[in-house]
Amino acid sequence: MEILAFLLLISAFLLTRTTRLSTAVHILLAQSAVVAAACAAAGWQAGETHMFVAALLTVVVKAGLIPYALLRLVRLLKKEREVHPVVGPNGSSLAAVAAMVLSYGLIERALPAVISRDAVASAVALVLIGLFLIITRRQAIMQIVGLITVENGLYVLGLSTTRGLPLIIELGIFFDVLVMVTVMVILAFRLKRSFHSTDTSILKRLKG
Fold it and tell me: How far apart are CA 117 and CA 120, in angstroms?
C-alpha cells in the first residue's frame, strides 16, 4: 500500500507540472488505475469480495469512461494547453510539495497511531492538490481533472480508514461521479462550441 500511496503522490505532483490537456488526462487515468489497485489490495488483505467489485467499477468509470470522454473533448480543441493558469507550473509544484508536507504533518499529529499513515496522508494530499487545480486552472478539462483527483483522494481516505463502504453505497457514489462528470463534459463541449475554447475565464463576457 505504501508503494501505491507514493504513486498517487507522484501522479498528483505531475498534474501540477503539465500544461498539455491530453497529458493531464492520461495522468488522471494512471492515477485512477492506482486507486483501483489500492482498492483491490485492501480487499485482498481484508478478505472483502465486494471491494473487488468497487475496484472493477473504478477501472471502468474512472480509468475508462471518464478519460475516454475527456480525450474526445481534447481532440476537438485546437490549442490543447493550459496557457494562462492563475499559478504557473513551478509555483503549483511548490504548492503541491507544501500540501504533501502539511498532510503528513497533520496525520502525524492528529492520527499518530493510524496503521496506514502513508495512505491517509497521500489521500489528504490528493484532496488538497485537486482543490488547488480547480482553483488555479482556467481550462474546464483541467478543472474536471482536479475534481476527479479530489474524489480519488476522498475515496482512498475512506478506503484507508474503513474496510470499504457497503456495495450499494459504492454503486451510488460511482453513479453520482459518472453523472457529474458527464454534465461537466457536456458543459465544456458547449463552451467549446460557443467560444472555440474551454477556458472558463471567457465566461466573464456573459456579465451584463
Answer: 5
Question: Residue 208, Cβ neighbours under 10 Å: how many?
Answer: 2
The C-alpha atoms of residue 35 and residue 41 are separated, in whole angstroms, by: 10
pLDDT tens, per residue, the chain with 208 residues:
778 888 999 999 999 998 888 899 999 999 999 999 988 888 888 777 878 888 888 888 888 888 998 888 888 776 667 777 788 888 989 999 999 999 988 888 777 666 678 888 898 999 999 999 989 988 888 888 998 999 899 888 888 777 666 777 777 777 777 787 878 788 777 777 777 777 777 666 666 5
Look up the pTM and report it: 0.85
Cα–Cα distance for residue pair 204/66, rounded to 1 Å: 27
Cell digits for 130?
485537486
Type of residue at 106: L
Number of Cα atoms under 13 Å in the Cβ half of residue 124? 20
